[in-house]
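Submission sheet (multi-component)
Chains listed below:
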Amino acid sequence: MGGFPGALDCGAPEFLDFLIGSSPADRQASYRNGLDTLNARAKKQFSKSFAELDNTQADAVIRPLLAPLPWAYDLPKDPAMRFLAEAHRDIRTATQNSREWAAAGAASGRRGGAFGGGGGGSYINPIDPVYKG
Amino acid sequence: MPAKEYDVLIVGSGHSGGMAANILTKQGVNCLMLNAGPESDFEHNRVNKAVHELPYRGFGKPGRLPHVYQANEFNANQWVDETENPYTHDPANLYNWVRVRLVGGRSLFWARQSFRLSDFEFKAGDLEGTGQNWPISLADLHPYYSRVEEIFRVAGRKEGWPEFPDGNFVEPNYGPDSETIKHLSALGKERGMKFSKMRSSGGQNGLASSVNLLLPDAMATGKLEMVSNAIVREVTTDKKTGLANGAHFVDRHSRHERHVKARAVVLAAGTLESTRLLLNSGIANSSGVLGRYLHDQIYGISVVSSVAEARDGKRPSGLMGGSAFIPRFRNLKKDEKRDFIKGYCVIINSGGSAAPSLFAEYGEALQKKVDHYAGSCVSGSIFGERPARYENHVRINKNVSDAWGFRRCTSK
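Outcome: structure written.
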């Protein structure tokens, strides 16, 4: 990926497991149902679970569910396509906002890419103790 | 705080409360300002961090600010805590209520775009044959606009177009137009569009807020007292006259309740907080329309296009970059054929990149697309006026209270 690490190298699966595990019920349900749909499609097409597919097979399952989004806040109505759009965005963000991505950016002297990837910002501390992070 | 009577009680410290304090204290009026939140010292409260140092890699704590789409993990602490200050809405009708409870309010965090409304908006009833005119016109507001523009140091290019009224501007610094902006401008002219520039408040020292532009002058008069962490529960009225004569408020930390007396009350707590206060106080609603006709602007990115000559990192110098503002160009004539009412403007930005979500791709193939279009894009976003409808309203939800036991709003 042009000198930048991929999602697996950046620990995106482990991080997303933690993030979704601490998320509200509707987001957990979206991931659970979405993964069930991917598994069901994989079973139907290749008689295997999604995780067992090779890249070509996984692509055959995923590609019909990909859709261009003209307006990033406006996700597809179809639940499976919606899940894929959300998960895709989450994976990219988790990857580009990782320590590994930042290190690769620093090493190559290039900036981290879209979504503030590998970048930084001005963090506002809790203003007073009543605001509990 | 001394137990005395003030001339004016001002609830809220943002643009409206700050301006009320600024103007009134200069006339010698004794004011007390109550702020629901704490004072914030951003010099002390800000610290630079890399995104991977944050506990949630920039995603923010899940479920913390579900309605604030501007929120991220860096700025999460500047917004109102939705668990302390809940509100409800019909699940089928999402309503995003974005709130700040700090001294300075939302004037600390705004996009600084500073346009005047025109008589095409004020007199829309005459123009469109439906709806009502405002009871005021641009001529009535002109001197007030001018004063605010001076204080906020609004930069703009004067055009002399009635649909895009000029203001009391400081010298703008736009730089020369890029070739794409010139080209679009020529194309737009053929279609009846006029191209101008953004009009933006420069403020001072990086901040265009009540805190630095309005409140210091008010404090300097010695006529303003400010109390932070004071949450107003109810506006009180005089039993004989029925007029507002003060307010009950609680201290945010100690939860002690107090009352303050004033000859007049200015509610400047934000559109919906001020409405909620009036509803919870049971006043100013003999018409029954309090909380109704709720409306906001619409906006969205409508078009993104790419300039072929600027793709693959080849950007000839002067081709890309810059922005333009196309003021309302539809529905300006009485006899114009309409398939919608009111109008919209378009903001053009040149030299951006294509969002990854625009492509039905992933992995290396997606990265290639993103790299291919990087820096070659021109986007147009629209901002439009929405009609005010009776059905769109907020009311008090008697079943939901905030952390201080006050009833909260629901929207529909």
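Remark: Chain A touches chain B through 49 residues (CB under 8 Å).
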